[in-house]
Amino acid sequence: MKKLSTSSKVYLFLIFVVLYAPIFYLIFYSFNSGGSMHNFESFTLEHYNAVFEDSRLITILINTVIVALLSGLIATIIGTLGAIGIVSIKDKKMRKTLLSLNNVLIVSPDVVIGASFLILFTMIGVKLGFTSVLVSHVAFSVPIVVLMVLPKLLEMNTSLIDAARDLGASKRDVLTRVVLPYIQPGIFAGFFLALTYSLDDFAVTFFVTGNGFSTLSIEIYSMARTGITLTVNAISGLVFLVTILVVIGYYFVTNRSKRVNEEVQR
Amino acid sequence: MFNKASKGPLFPYIIWIALFVIAPIVLIVYYSMLDLNGNFTLANYRNFFSPVYLKMTLTSFWYAFLITLFTLLFAYPTAYLLTRTKHKHLWLMLIIIPSWINLLLKTYAFIGIFGLYGPINAFLEVFGLDPQQILFTDFSFIFVSVYIFIPFMIIPIFNSLDKMNPTLVYAARDLGASSFTTFRRVIFPLTIDGVKSGIQVTFIPALSLFMITRLIAGNQVITLGTAIEQQFLVSQNWGMGSTIAVFLIIIMVIIMLLTGQKKGGRIQ
Predict the structure, then answer these.
(1) Among candidates A19, A38, A110 on the partner chain, residue whose Cβ is nearest the Cβ of B95
(2) Do B248 and A158 touch (CB under 8 A)?
């Protein structure tokens, strides 16, 4: 493989600069004692204090995390069971139909999902708020879990299951002691993606949330519409920190499970 | 277990499909045929084919096209160069991380960056130029959208480039093809699937953006997404909103068919 030429390196460098500059720009000014995102006066932590002292903001943060964790968990259960169910279907046509239906919500624009869920909730009389937001987040996270778990199930050697049955394992044992441990990395990946989907979602939540309930995205939107508030910068500093920690954590967990798998195979 | 069809686990999943995949589509189509008083009508469809909405659809298309084009133009070389780096997966990871930062925060950053006193204008001033209104222009809208979408375009292209057998490139070079011919006749055709999925994940969301248009383009740009949001949440005209949504779904299906890939039969 040839080494990268200088111009290629410069190009890549510029792309990385452009990708990260806005994020660091936000974080840099979160320490500004002046109230704006230009001319940095002096270092301060007052905006971070403001975040932690604002009980409304803290409630919203907690709401966001609760919705993400709960919806991720429920979606992972439904999605994993769904993937197991899909694999057990013999009829090819039926299987294909289910898979196409599965992908509808992945490719649909957020606005359409949000609008149609709004109609749905109004029709069946679900009050807009925590429940509607949670249910929507579960709904759009299920297909991604299925897509993460399915390949693991398909690559699994079926003789493992036959062997377990021959050795007298009940159906339940086969599921909990053979299948689930095998597809575990897929389940984790699905749960993790569901979390990020939920944390990142704005459009769907914007449609199905009522007046009383708000997530971080919605709150930032309404703050940003009124102009620049350095509290938002402080929030982004915190979000960035958490993201980096999660990335490192995720990297660590997947690497460890990979190593464990390799050792088991040896 | 896989042989004996066990329908039990499928039950919640089927309910999910019925409630959140099929029912919403049916409801959207149903509502598109209702007027403000809930009576059956086709007026919404007639409205959609009026010059106002057709023009909006066309401009929305034009913006989505430009966004996709620029995203592709910047993403392809990036993906290509990334596959040539030493720790390519680490670098790819670094490209993906910004996409995990909340979308709203990244958009908000540009309100400051493009602002009248922001760094871009400060930079222009060094060259003796007067501060420009960058925010609320087409440029800022397209720039921010490209910024948001670029990681999603890079990932599929990177994957298809990564899967490509490098000896094919060496063979082409040995047979006397120039770098450009190699790219045009060998590399690009082999990675077209990645490009197609990249276009899919950029073009459809670009048609339906509404948050970026509101914050960055300041109601200058109206996309199909903005129009739907407007009809649903501001005008409370769900019928018209649903009609636009129906067309957005149709457009989406057409794009999926155009950029659809021959499935290698993985799931057969």
Answers:
(1) A19
(2) no
